Amino acid sequence: MIEEKLLLEANGMAQDLIRIRRKLHQHPEIGDHEFETSAFVTEQLEALGLEVLHPVGTSVIGILRGGKPGKTAALRADMDALPVQEETGLPFASKVPGMMHACGHDVHTTAALGAARILTSHREELSGNVKFFFQPNEEGTGGAERMVKAGCMENPHVDAVFGGHVDPEIPVGQIGIRYGKAYAASNPFVITLHGASSHGAQPDRGLDPIVCGAQIVSAVQTLVSRRTSPTDACVVTFGSFQAGTAGNIIPPLAKMQGIIRTLGPETRERITREFVTLVQGVAKAMGLDAEVQVFVSYPGIVNDDAPTDLMKSTAERMLGGKNVLLLHEPTMGTEDFGFFASAAMGAFIKVGVSHAQEPGAPLHSDHFDPDERALPIAAALYASSIWNYLA
Is 372 one of the catalytic residues? Predict the structure, then answer.
């Protein structure tokens, strides 16, 4: 089977993959400043003889043209790190103060480079083309959208896109597969309430934006509990509420910030619309003006059945059926892979990186430490899935 063959090849380069991952881990870079990482990835791809492009900022695209005609598949990896002070105590810990690959993007980049190396070694047998996307700033404003707008899905046109994310809750050697709605869409919001100031002893002479804001925080939760089906999912979080300067003064202004998370484009559109209507309605009922800004952020991920089936069957042949987990619940976290998957059919999996059966330190933790045995597994799985898709 091709899966066994490519896994054997990946295991043969395991030590080199570990070396690459540790090099990246020691030199993390924040989103849109992945200058050293981008240069290193470019060097690795050029050494394989791939055509290399930089469509926007620090992004890198490697293009592998197979020896036989066919479709085009893409594999995506993200490169940016987080502003986290690493506390793992590992000998290859971050050398950059206050910066760490706490979300496993060093693993993602390394696995994609491994897949590129495997597939390039079979260039003449390959039917079609492969694009390797190394994107900036997944953790921030989202490099995926900018890459899509810059034309990364064309010349040649991408027919399917694949990707994955490390998961410290899944043991190494296992893969998580989710059909359909997998990651939430995100819509940050800012609410500014315009009231009228007065003495705290005379609230009737003012318009209290704090009381109004408290009502809004409570009322908005009914969008989740009473306006969204129990079988669907929605989260509305207020993370900031700023108002006033003294305990005995009703302030003229209050500002609240938060984020809406939804699954699927229909729920996203409806909740966003009803959120604005509800906030403005509560404010109007209490005599205040509400300025509501809802921003469009990541679209979420909805996995397509065909490429998801393909990755599932590939993983089962490679790792055994017991090591391929069907994930019955989506995550309300978000991921900008959704921009690629909105431009072509796509599948996004979870790669187990826990050292044991118990979950490891969570993503974004200063103690996050993925099991490096996942590197050749992920590289081989990506390479095999793309091979099978093109074949």
Answer: yes
DSSP state of 331: B
Q: State the Cα–Cα distance between residues 201 and 359, nearest whole angstrom.
A: 53
* Residue whose pair of structure tokens reads 């109007």 in the numeric block: 284
Q: How confident is the model at residue 356 (pLDDT cuts 50, 70, 90)?
A: confident
Amino acid 124: pLDDT: 97
The CATH code that applies to domain 185-294 is 3.30.70.360
Angle between helices 374-390 and 305-319 (to 10 degrees): 130
Catalytic residue among 183, 298, 382, 389: 298
The residue extents of the domains of the chain are 2-183+300-390, 185-294
Tokens, residue 171: 């043991």
List helix spans (H) across the chain: 2-12, 14-26, 35-47, 105-120, 143-149, 209-220, 222-225, 265-285, 305-319, 337-343, 374-390
Phi-psi region of 15 (alpha: psi -120 to 50; beta: other; left: phi over 0): alpha
382 as an active site residue: the answer is: no
pLDDT at 156 over 90: yes
Q: What is the mean pLDDT of the chain?
A: 97
Of these residues, 9, 86, 145, 372, which one is catalytic?
372
Unique residue bearing structure tokens 């991920």? 301
How many Å apart are CA 86 and CA 94, to the nearest integer? 7
CA distance 150 to 159: 17
What does CATH list as the number for 2-183+300-390?
A: 3.40.630.10
